[in-house]
Design goal:
Blueprint lengths: L1 H8 L4 H21 L5 H10 L2 H108 L2 H16 L5 H70 L30 E2 L4 E2 L1 H12 L3 H19 L8 H25 L6 H25 L3 H19 L6 H9 L1 H21 L7 E2 L2 H7 L16 E2 L5 H20 L8 H26 L4 H29 L3 H6 L7 H23 L18 H17 L5 H24 L6 E2 H20 L6 H9 L2 H11 L9 H7 L5 H10 E2 L7 H4 L7 H16 L1
Parallel strand pairs: 5-6
Antiparallel strand pairs: 1-2, 3-4
């Protein structure tokens, strides 16, 4: 750039311009050479401009300039150089002498050091040999230790001690593999160690697979054992409750000769329920299930670094096993296979509970809960399906009992069983409907087999089985045998059916999560008695009872069943675990009242029919007799003979209250017949003597009622006499000296409350005075009218006016 600017400043002129340019290039070249710069740009420029000779010329000029400078420098230092050469020459002799001296010294040194060097070579060689031997010994020792580890690993593998074998392999890898001097041995270790690990993994996986197969059989047996223990515990509780009920019954009966004793119970430990049970790798020889193979496989996989994979593998396999356990065989009835089905599931979760508590994290609580939720939903579905198909109450009860035992068993391990119990409660109504249907058939069969004969018991055990067991005895004194009971065989048969119903109902309701279920049992017991037994008895009464003796036997049976119903409700209360006073407080009316009323009505109807046959003799009464009958009319004597015979027979089987009600109905019917006879067209007229005869008849009937006082209470005897109230009050009114007192409300309410004034009018009009007989008016013409007749006519007139 400087050359360019300088050229631009030079005045124009051809010769001056050329010379100045060459001088400039020469200066630049000299400066570059002096500064040891690269001359390449100058060479390229010379060849590019086609003037290499100019560059060569400049180089030669620079060389000549430097030679002159050298020459000037040499001239300037020539004297010093000459002096230096002289000094060097003077030193040459000293150097020669030093050289000869050094040579002599070297010769002496060589002669002296030669043996030492040979010894040194021998020492170095020996030292190398020693180092090699030491190295060989170290390598050999390392190889020996390695071989010992390999032999130990092989020994552990052959003995099945896979964990120790893996520990040996880890030691080989960490301590010897990289230090092994033999490349061949090192390659062998690199190839064999993974193979050995794979071999151990396969072996332990096979053992785990065998354990999975074995644990399914073990789980079924384990579940059956666990449920069996729950059943035994429940039975002990039932036995204890029975003893308590017996003690309560003895207390209720005021028996003071009670014997009390302390009883020791053998408390069986929970099935695997104790954490501190001497557990050793999951082994429990008493219960027959061993978790050692599982924990061994888990430990080995932990050692191999495959812990998560094994956990997943274990969970998936157990889930598949549980799913297969849910399969219900269609070839086998569920009633036969339900115990195996539920025991398998119970055993599965007993094992899982043990693994959760002792497995060291092999399975988590959440995973177990997920499995349990799956199992509960499946079991609920199976129960819903099977219960919907069942048509036998006993089958449903058997399955319910086993499921409740399953719930008790698994609740001890912390599993939630509420959903299972809800399914059982959901089918409570269906079970009781099936149970009612079964009882309906059994009761129908029992009633159909009844011969309406009093039951004969020859032995005391028969009395205990048919009377005492249902508390239908009328006395605590054991009768003499043979004993003829007042009831027929249908009574204890029906009692057994009802008692079985109560026990089955309580069995279904108990152990189902509900503590207070007496109201439910009582509701269905009421239905059994009022809908099933009562209707069956009504059907029996309406279709199969023929004759007074059969009707009397049915009425006697109803009285006994009334006492039995009290026992039924007490028995239900005892089995339900509530105090008897609560059961008695909530007791309702007699549930068989329809059948009882029908039986008594039928007996009364048959007796009325028989009495009506005797009452037809009332047609033979002379209603206009001159002399009153002193010993009673024929009809009443026949009725009394029949009634006395009836009472002598009936009092042997009928309770006093039933007999009283029947006789009261019959006497009331006789009273009505007497009044109806006086009211009817058969009697056109009658006189006082006929009424006096009827009064005698009624007195005989009242005397009959009084004679029954030893059988009844005083009040009951009075009620029997009151059954004749209508006829008695009518006769008293007709025989009264002041019949107009009937119009007095106070007297009428006290003495004539059973009379209908319309009947009084009709019957009173038929009463004739003795002077009203044929031709009687001629002799009594102008005579004074009878005041009683006058009063009666006034009464009739007043009553007609009221009407």
């Amino acid at each position: 750039m400087q050359s360019t600017r300088s050229r631009r400043k030079v005045a124009p002129g051809a010769a001056d311009t050329g010379d100045s340019g060459e001088k400039q290039e020469q200066l630049l070249l000299s400066s570059a050479i002096c500064n040891t710069e690269d001359l390449g740009p100058f060479v390229r420029k010379a060849f590019a401009s086609g003037r290499p000779e100019t560059l060569l010329h400049h180089l030669r000029q620079f060389s000549r300039s430097k030679e002159s400078e050298i020459e000037e420098v040499c001239k300037a230092h020539y004297q010093d150089f000459i002096l230096a050469v002289d000094d060097l020459r003077s030193l040459l002799s000293d150097v020669d002498s030093l050289k000869s001296s050094l040579y002599d010294s070297n010769s002496r040194l060589q002669s002296v050091a030669g043996p030492l060097l040979s010894s040194l070579d021998s020492f170095v060689e020996a030292q190398n040999v020693s180092n090699n031997v030491d190295s060989a010994l170290r390598s050999l020792s390392l190889c020996i230790k390695l071989m010992e580890l390999c032999a130990r690993a092989n020994h552990h593998i052959s003995n099945g001690s896979f964990y120790m074998a893996l520990k040996c392999l880890d030691s080989i890898e960490n301590e010897f593999q990289d230090k092994t001097p033999s490349s061949t041995l090192k390659r062998m270790l690199e190839s064999k160690i993974p193979e050995i690990r794979s071999h151990i993994e396969r072996k332990i996986s096979k053992e785990f697979g065998d354990w999975l197969v074995e644990i399914r059989v073990v789980s079924r047996n384990l579940g059956q054992l666990a449920i069996g223990q729950a059943s035994a515990a429940r039975q002990r509780e039932e036995d204890l409750r029975i003893k308590q009920r017996q003690a309560e019954e003895q207390s209720r009966l005021s028996l003071r000769d009670c014997v009390y004793a302390l009883e020791e119970e053998d408390d069986e430990g929970e099935l695997g329920g104790d954490e501190n049970d001497g557990y050793n790798y999951g082994n429990n020889g008493l219960l027959g299930f061993d978790l050692t193979p599982l924990y061994r496989a888990y430990h080995i996989h932990q050692t191999l670094g495959l812990e998560d994979r094994f956990k997943q593998y274990y969970f998936e396999n157990r889930k598949l096993q549980l799913t297969s356990d849910f399969q219900v065989s269609s070839m086998t009835p569920f009633l036969e296979s339900h115990q195996t089905f539920f025991a398998q599931i119970a055993g599965f979760f007993v094992v899982e509970d043990r693994i959760l508590r002792t497995g060291g994290g092999l399975i988590s609580k959440m995973e177990v809960e997920n499995l349990w939720e799956t199992a509960v939903s499946k079991m609920c579905a199976v129960l819903e399906d099977q219960f919907s198909r069942m048509q036998t109450a006993n089958h449903l009860l058997l399955i319910k009992d086993y499921v409740s035992l399953l719930g008790v068993t698994l609740r001890r391990y912390g599993y939630a069983v509420g959903a299972l119990l809800d399914v059982l409660s959901k089918h409570r109504d269906k079970y009781h409907e099936l149970l009612l249907s079964d009882c309906r058939k059994q009761i129908a069969e029992a009633l159909a087999a009844d011969k309406f004969d009093q039951m004969l018991m020859k032995k005391e055990y028969e009395y205990s089985m048919n009377v005492l067991s249902f508390q239908i005895q009328t006395s605590d004194i054991i009768p003499a045998f043979p004993y003829v009971a007042p009831f027929s065989s249908t009574v204890p048969d029906c009692c057994r059916i009802v008692r079985s119903f109560i026990e089955d109902s309580v069995s279904f309701m108990s152990h189902g999560g509900h503590l207070d279920f007496y109201d439910v049992v009582k509701k269905y017991l009421d239905r059994l008695l009022s809908e099933v037994l009562d209707e069956a008895l009504l059907k029996l009464i309406s279709s199969s009872v023929h004759g007074v003796s059969q009707a009397m036997q049915v009425a006697a049976n109803m009285a006994v069943l009334e006492r039995a119903c009290d026992f039924f409700f007490r028995h239900a209360a005892q089995l339900s675990g509530i105090p008897l006073r609560m059961a008695e407080r909530g007791r309702r009316q007699f549930p068989l009242n329809k059948a009882r009323d029908a039986a008594e009505e039928m007996l009364s109807g048959m007796l009325k029919t028989k009495v009506d046959g005797f009452m037809t003799l009332i047609e033979n009464v002379n209603w206009m007799t001159d002399e009153p009958s002193q010993g009673g009319n024929e009809y009443v004597n026949e009725v009394l003979i029949y009634l006395e015979t009836l009472v002598s027979t009936a009092q042997q089987i009928l309770p006093p209250q039933v007999l009283k009600r029947v006789l009261q109905d019959v006497l009331s019917h006789i009273s009505e017949k007497i009044v109806d006879t006086l009211l009817g067209d058969l009697v056109k007229r009658f006189n006082v003597n006929a009424i006096i005869g009827i009064d005698v008849d009624i007195r005989l009937l009242e005397s009959f009622a009084d004679n029954l006082a030893p059988l009844f209470s005083e009040g009951d005897a009075n009620q029997l006499k009151n059954a004749l109230a209508e006829s008695r009050q009518l006769i008293n009114l007709l025989l009264s000296s002041h019949p107009e007192n009937f119009l007095n409300p106070v007297i009428r309410e006290r003495n004539y409350n059973a009379l209908d004034y319309r009947k009084v009018v009709t019957i009173s009009e038929k009463l004739r005075d003795p002077s009203d007989r044929l031709f009687g008016t001629f002799g009594s013409r102008g005579a004074k009218q009878n005041p009683k007749k006058k009063s009666l006519d006034a009464l009739i007139k007043r009553l007609r006016d009221v009407s």
